[in-house]
Design a protein that fits this description.
CATH architecture of the domain at 165-280: Sandwich
CATH topology of the domain at 165-280: Immunoglobulin-like
Shape: elongated
Strand order of the largest sheet: 4-3-6-7
Number of helices: 7
Helix content: 40-55%
Distance between the termini: 118 Å
CATH class of the domain at 165-280: Mainly Beta
Strand content: 15-25%
Largest sheet: 4 strands, antiparallel
Order of helices and strands: HHHHHHEEEEEHEE
Radius of gyration: 43 Å
Length: 285
């Protein structure tokens, strides 16, 4: 009899244990459902205050979408792109449109590059434009450095020519037209002095006289070409005439400004010597 009682107690204990497990499982499911409900309520609350958050949930990551599949309003209104992203994307599209128009005007067919660009995602377009602009800046710096070196080389060569020959303006006179003098147009008479510092006879030379005001602004440039020989170490004076146009402000400024208020810069280009040798500004491009 006692044996039967023990057996019954064991069955009751197992049933109670199973019931407890079912209850715990139900509680876990209830807690999970409650957490999901709280999360959804939180999502709805956040999306109501932050439209961009709702956009991310509904539209996904716009950076992975093809540019060709989106219109301008979507790209302008999305919160997933920064102002910098939009600027880069706009430049990328502008360059692409420009390239397409040039291709159409030249009659060329759609290139492989244009086909590849049509498959670009928003993120790819932004990243490639950023890389393009960074490379372009590097190229601009390299070009600027190259130009500075070329400019320095020209100045070095010009200094050597200036050490061989100097040209100075010592007088400037405005000459109005005069039928009696046989002068039918207004002119500016410019008197210059040449001085050779070379040990070789000069056969001819050419360069530019640059007239500047006291502030360094250019008034006029006059190209000078001389084919009369100049002995080594000698000096010579020469006179030439610059055309005057009353409707050109710089012509009037050159004619009416006193010489002491003008800075004249001699920029030699070529000196030919009687022995057949020469000095010149070489091409630095």
């Amino acid at each position: 009899m006692a044996k039967e009682t023990n057996s019954g107690n064991q069955v009751d204990s197992e049933r109670a244990s199973q019931a407890l497990e079912r209850l715990e499982k139900q509680n876990r499911l209830l807690v999970r459902a409650l957490l999901i409900a709280i999360f959804l309520v939180a999502v709805l609350a956040v999306s109501s205050f932050f439209p961009g958050f709702r956009e991310r949930l509904s539209s996904g990551n716009i950076r992975t979408k093809k540019v060709a599949d989106l219109d301008a309003s979507q790209l302008a209104s999305t919160k997933q792109l920064t102002d910098e992203d939009r600027t880069l994307l706009g430049r990328r599209l502008a360059r692409r449109i420009g390239g397409t128009l040039l291709g159409a005007l030249s009659g060329s067919s759609t290139s492989a590059e244009q086909l590849r660009q049509s498959e670009e995602s928003v993120g790819q377009a932004i990243d490639e434009e950023r890389q393009y602009e960074e490379e372009h800046k590097i190229q601009e710096k390299a070009d600027s450095a190259r130009m500075q070196l070329a400019k320095a080389e020209v100045e070095r060569q010009r200094l050597l020519l200036s050490q061989a020959l100097t040209v100075t303006v010592y007088e400037k006179i405005f000459l109005p037209s005069s039928y009696e003098a046989g002068r039918y147009d207004d002119q500016t008479e410019i008197r210059v002095a040449y001085e050779s510092h070379s040990q070789k006879d000069i056969r001819g030379f050419e360069g530019t006289l640059v007239f500047k005001d006291l502030f360094g602004d250019v008034i006029k440039k006059i190209h000078l070409k001389e084919d009369e020989p100049l002995k080594a170490g000698s000096k010579k004076r020469q006179t030439f005439f610059a055309k005057y146009n009353q409707f050109i402000d710089n012509d009037k400024l050159l004619a009416n400004t006193q010489l002491e208020n003008i800075h004249v810069e001699w920029q030699p280009e070529t000196i030919l010597f009687s022995d057949g040798s020469s000095m010149k500004i070489s091409d630095t491009d």
